[in-house]
Amino acid sequence: MPHAPMPRFPTGFRWGVSTSAYQIEGAAHTDGRGVSIWDTFARTPGRIADGSSGDVACDHYHRYAEDIALMAGLGITAYRFSVSWPRVLPTGAGTVNTSGLDFYERLVDAVLAHGIDPVATLFHWDLPQSLEDDGGWLNRDTAYRFAEYADLVAARLGDRVKMWITLNEPFIHMSLGHGMGVHAPGRALLFDAFPVAHHQLLAHGLAVAALRARSGSPVAIANNYSPVRRVGDDPADLAAAAAYEALHNRLFTDPLLGHGYPAELGFDDAVVRDGDLDVIAAPIDVLGVNYYNPTGVRAPEEGSPLPFELVPLDGYPRTAFDWPVAPDGLRDLLGWLRHRYGTDLPPVQITESGCAYDDQPDAQGRVHDPDRIVYLDGHLRAVHAAIADGVDVTGYFVWSLLDNWEWAEGFTKRFGLVHVDYPTGRRTPKSSYAWLRDVIATARRETPR
Ligand code: PNW
């Protein structure tokens, strides 16, 4: 267990937790919600490790008041949730489901009543199935539908949401959902998935303009990053590491910050129209950084369809996901962002950071998760060190408040500060919850917001 006191964070530093709609809400058939690509994907045999779906998940749709009480007990200053597009617009466009908007209004008002800032993500991968049937993110029209949806949500909540996040991890949605086919919608296009990147970025840029027109709150995007650990010293290994860097860490961030697409990826950019790059580079107020782990990369075998090979990294402890625990990677990543983008880099918030362990209650019903405490302690110290290095980091959100439905892994991976007994829905704060509560209480005494 870590004992050394946590160093002091800057005044106003934001302490938060993150969740997403499909992973916690349940209520998939309630109050007029439409079908998303994840409903369809989860119902397809063989796609989800335990054959489960998010139909019920944590039943947060009905238990949100209890969950907000847990947030209040933790002492967080911000809560990042996502709005389910098909709950608000069942077919993605056109007819509005007012009950869906009402739910998010109840949620936001209850969060505010506890003195917590609501941070709303507009797209956390649950595309309305009707839009997928028209081509989804391969179809440019989806970007315009997203801007209309952003306008609708901001018209209702723009006076109360304290920060907007347009998209969650467009890289993971492109690569796992459309490149490899292990996430919804299950397309395996490899590098032909590039239009999915471009249309998501276009959607982001159009939504920035829509949000600005309706709300004075800051606008951000949450990107997934993974610092590259090159394995091997051959020129081919260097080239592979550079290719992976361009794909994972630059493909979305370069154009967002006005640098255009990384040319070395050699994508067919026929879908990029005049003016698109200006829309995409609309200034944002905060860059959201989701960080889990570094990636080992070396040159591919002859004949590989990819310009790199991913290799497991030795010498790190591992989570239940088999992901390496590497807080140094977060400090390196933040330093890399500052070095690469310089004054084009806006303030950064860590919009996700966390780990999965196989946490279960003991005979007394308590849930001990010492590994998560070590994880969070290390990553918070890494953020602090990055701030000392000169990177403007203004917040840290833990993934996640609750154990929840972990996409293709179903219920088999537990990321929560709070244990969820899925059959009953019972919530039990883990020891990491008490640890983080004490860290936040001390930090807020020292550096009030
Ligand atoms: C993120 N990877 O997903 C998502 O934003 C969350 O919804 C999710 O629960 C969390 O991280 C934990 O997985 C990722 O393979 C999924 O590198 C996969 C990867 C990274 C992030």
Helix amount: 25-40%
Q: Which blocks of ≥5 consecutive residues have pLDDT under 50? A: none
Number of strands: 13
Task: Bin the strand percentage.
Answer: 5-15%
Instruction: Provide the structure class.
Output: alpha/beta
Strands of the widest sheet, in order across it, are 1-2-3-4-5-7-10-11
Individual helix count: 15
N- to C-terminal separation?
28 Å
Q: Main beta sheet: strand number and arrangement?
A: 8 strands, parallel, barrel
Rounded mean pLDDT score: 98
Element-level helix/strand string: EHHHEHHEHHEHHEEHHHEEEHEHEEEH
Bound molecules: 4-nitrophenyl beta-D-glucopyranoside
The value of Rg in angstroms is 21 Å
User: Shape from CA axes?
Assistant: globular
Protein name: Beta-glucosidase
EC number: 3.2.1.21
Enzyme class: hydrolase
Organism: Micromonospora qiuiae
Structure description:
- This protein has 449 residues and is an alpha/beta fold.
- The protein is 39% helix and 15% strand.
- It has 15 helices and 13 strands.
- It has helices at 21-24, 37-42, 60-74, 85-88, 98-113, 129-133, 141-157, 170-179, 194-214, 235-250, 253-256, 276-280, 327-341, 370-389, 431-446, and strands at residues 14-18, 78-82, 117-123, 163-168, 219-225, 228-230, 286-291, 295-298, 309-311, 348-353, 393-399, 418-421, 426-429.
- An eight-stranded parallel beta barrel has the order 1-2-3-4-5-7-10-11, surrounded by five helices.
- Strand 12 and strand 13 form a beta hairpin.
- Helix 3 packs parallel to helix 5, helix 7 runs parallel beside helix 9 (194-214) and helix 13 runs parallel beside helix 14.
- The longest helix is centred in the middle third of the chain and has 21 residues, at 194-214.
- The two termini are 28 Å apart.
- 54% of the residues are buried.
- The mean pLDDT is 98.
- It binds 4-nitrophenyl beta-D-glucopyranoside.
- Keywords: Carbohydrate metabolism, Cellulose degradation, Glycosidase, Hydrolase, Polysaccharide degradation.
- This is Beta-glucosidase.
- Belongs to the glycosyl hydrolase 1 family.
- It comes from Micromonospora qiuiae.
- Its EC number is 3.2.1.21.
